[in-house]
Specification:
Layout: E1 7-11, H1 15-27, E2 31-35, H2 38-48, E3 52-56, H3 64-73, E4 82-86, H4 91-100, E5 104-107, H5 112-126, E6 134-137, E7 140-143, E8 148-151, E9 154-156, H6 160-171, H7 179-187, H8 195-209, E10 218-221, E11 225-228
Length: about 230
């Protein structure tokens, strides 16, 4: 699996539902991790750092509502989108789910096609490059669908790793990324790469960005990592 595929953590205790959803999510280009109960979900969030969580309300050991509440109080997961799945269709239940922190609420039975659209809609907000969006920062334009980067109208030659690094920076300009965070996002958690490798690829990205002229838009933050702008 490619490290730049958006990762969905699917938390569902019904095997049939889990199988159908995971199959369709993977067919739509997502990397899928699965948990069968609330406690397992909380452990897996730390292990896989998902880009989005699809979370069933009714779960053994710990309810989806409680999982959602805990994740939305943690700094590391507060911004991770959560789509709540529930057989509860009453307005009071929908309101409770959203007030607990869920970003969207889908009532069972649902259309898989609609759910996939909602997953993509949430990711457009948090990881636009991962769903083929076009990103712009100053005179730099990154087209995730065509894998093309231009600066001031000139096409830049970037390797695949440098492209993923740039996409990560452009999704959140100004944010300081540590070397470890960049390794997780760009290379993937299950691949061992020395943190010094990040510095090498940052150097290549800087060279590529400045090949056609212009100032270096990347900033080294001493003791912390790197940022765009």
């Amino acid at each position: 699996m490619s490290a730049d595929q958006p990762c969905v953590l699917l938390v569902e205790d019904e095997p049939a539902q889990r199988e159908i959803l995971s199959y369709n999510l993977e067919a739509d280009g997502f990397r899928v991790e699965m948990a069968e109960n609330g406690e397992e979900a909380l452990v897996m969030v730390d292990e896989v750092a998902p880009d989005i969580i699809v979370l069933d309300w009714m779960l053994p050991t710990l309810s989806g509502i409680e999982v959602c509440r805990q994740l939305k109080t943690r700094n590391a997961t507060r911004a991770t989108p959560i789509i709540m799945l529930s057989a509860r269709s009453e307005e009071v239940d929908r309101v409770r789910g959203l007030e607990t922190g869920a970003d969207d609420y889908v009532v069972k039975p649902y259309s898989v096609v609609e759910l996939l659209a909602r997953v993509r809609a949430q990711l457009r907000r948090t990881r636009p490059a991962a769903v083929g969006e076009r990103l712009e920062y100053m005179d730099i334009v990154l087209d995730a669908e065509t894998h093309r980067v231009t600066r001031g109208g000139t096409t830049l030659k970037l390797g695949p790793t440098e492209f993923r690094l740039l996409a990560t920076f452009m999704e959140k300009p100004g944010r300081v990324w540590s070397r470890e965070q960049l390794l997780d996002r760009v290379w993937g958690r299950d691949i061992y790469v020395d943190t010094r490798t990040v510095d090498v690829h940052i150097g290549r990205l800087r060279k590529g960005l400045c090949a056609a002229g212009g100032d270096d838009p990347l900033r080294t933050v001493r003791g912390a990592g790197y940022a765009l702008g």
